[in-house]
Design goal:
GO molecular function: ligase activity
Order of helices and strands: EHEEHHEEEHEEEEEHHHEHH
CATH architecture: 2-Layer Sandwich
Radius of gyration: 17 Å
Strand order of the largest sheet: 10-11-6-2-1-12
Mean pLDDT: 96
Shape: globular
Strand content: 15-25%
CATH class: Alpha Beta
Organism: Sumerlaea chitinivorans
Number of strands: 12
Largest sheet: 6 strands, mixed
Low-confidence stretches: none
CATH superfamily: Bira Bifunctional Protein, Domain 2
Keywords: Ligase
Protein name: Lipoate-protein ligase A
Number of helices: 9
């Protein structure tokens, strides 16, 4: 697997690169390109230096976000191509993204199986450094019954984008300031507010990155051309109100 440890300059560019990596891998798979030395599968690691809100593909800005507070604070509201709930990105939130070919990872036949497979491996990677990680709800990672990681998927015919977050040094009170209480919650949340439900893990970003890279054998430097797709994706999707505020 190739590794791309890269944070781009804007929130829009960072979301666009996620889609670009998936589209590049899907095109290679559709052409029948044989994978060699991990080519075509990528782990990306990134962390935004500034705060911004990300709504899931089918999420509602009105129902999920305190839009006026975000506007007053200059916090952008964007939409990603994967499902899942609304999150606040920023310093102390490490993002990991995996672009996987389904024929290589037969455990990824459907959404549920993919969650079980990928999160099981992430759990295995993190336990030695953060403690007894639990898989809770549909696609959460938790410690002591509190969530520190969420994830979502975007599936194509041949490839999957699986991306997740790991809270390790995040300013948790900001989440309640900018995000409403979600209408759909896992049973284990038990009605808890953001501050009572979420937690940071006691680990440094570099330790988390190293654990993930080792688990997925992500050693080969990324050498694809997905970055070339980013400007157009920002122009046509991530930089537009038509996409970001569609719901």
């Amino acid at each position: 697997m190739q590794i791309l440890d890269l944070t781009l300059g804007t929130p829009e560019e960072n979301l666009a690169l996620e889609e670009a990596l998936l589209e590049e891998a899907e095109a290679l798979a559709a052409e029948g390109v044989v994978l060699e030395d991990g080519a075509g599968e990528v782990m990306r690691l990134w962390e935004s230096p500034s705060y911004f809100v990300v709504v899931g593909a089918g999420g509602s800005v009105e129902h999920d976000v305190f839009s006026l507070e975000c506007k007053n604070a200059g916090i952008p509201i964007l939409r990603r191509i994967s499902g899942g709930g609304t999150v606040l990105q920023g310093p102390g939130c490490l993002n990991y993204s995996l672009v996987l070919r389904i024929t290589t990872h037969t455990q990824c036949a459907d959404v549920t199986a993919t969650n079980r497979y990928v999160l099981g491996r992430v759990q295995q990677a993190l336990r030695p450094i953060v403690g007894p990680v639990e898989i809770r709800g549909i696609s959460d990672l938790a410690l002591g019954g509190k969530k520190f990681g969420g994830s979502a998927q975007r599936r194509r015919r041949h490839c999957i984008l699986f991306h997740g977050t790991l809270l390790y040094g995040f300013d948790l009170p900001l989440i309640s300031k900018y995000l409403r209480q979600p209408t759909k919650t896992p049973d284990y949340r038990a009605g808890r507010a953001h501050m009572e439900f979420l937690t940071n893990v006691a680990a440094e970003a570099e330790a988390l990155k190293y654990a993930l890279r080792c688990e997925w054998n992500a050693q080969q430097p990324y050498r694809g051309k997905a970055l070339e797709l980013v400007p157009d994706l920002v122009k046509t999707r991530y930089g537009t109100n038509e996409w970001n505020f569609r719901f």
